[in-house]
Structure formats: structure tokens, C-alpha cells
Amino acid sequence: MKHPSKDFPKGMIALAIMVMVCAILGTIAMGMMFNPKEIDANLDSYVSNGAYWAFQKLGNYYHLGNSLMVIYAWTNVIGQFSTLILSIDAPLRMLLGSKEAKEFIPTKLLKQISMGLTLMVSGWLVSCLEQLSWFNQLFQGPPRF
Length: 145
Hints:
Layout: H1 4-33, H2 36-41, H3 43-61, H4 67-97, H5 101-104, H6 107-110, H7 119-140
């Protein structure tokens, strides 16, 4: 950018317009895919699952079954998980990087390990991975002996 003070706001406005156009086109596309009577009959389910229904119908239209819906669901999971990590990790790193952290947090937890991670951050990541392991076991059914 040659003039960041002028070009950055223009870029943000252009980005906002592109997002708005995509949202409007997506809404029109979903409006064309669904019968209004079907929406009225299942309004609560449509509000929470409308995008999933759209990808399911799109997959059925192109003879792909539920594969597009599953891909959409996994991208949604990855996006939500990354947002969760960022919303917890960024403030935690700011807290641990401050000078006042030594007053309130034990020094063993402030020790840095590989890639600049502290023991507290790596412990948080390990606990998240344990939860994913538990989630996986939840869908495998009861243990087999």
C-alpha cells in the first residue's frame, strides 16, 4: 500500500460491501431452494438448521447425498474451534506476557517451552485435546470387552 491511511479504510469498505453482497445472494439462493410452507411448518428447526438443509438439498440435487452437508458441518466445527482457541489463547498470552504476571502466577507456569508456549498455554491445549478424545469416544458407543 502506498497510502495506508487512505487505502486501508477503502479496503475495509470494499470488504464490507463484498460480505453484504454474498450474504444477500446466499439469502436469495436459500429462498429459491425452500418451499415457504415447509419453512412455516418447521420454523424453529429451519432457523437453527437452514444452512444444513440447504447443503443437504444441494448434495441431493447433484447426486452427492449428504456429503456437502457433512463438509459444511466440519468446516463449521473447525471455524468454531479456531474462534474458541483464539478467544482464549490471545488474552491468555497477553496476561502471561505482562510484567504483572509474575506477581500473580507461579513462576513454574510462566516457564516457556518449545515455540514460545508457556506451560499454562500448553496445558490448556492438552486439556482441549482430551475433550476431543472424550467426544470421539462418546460416538463410538459403549466400550467392548
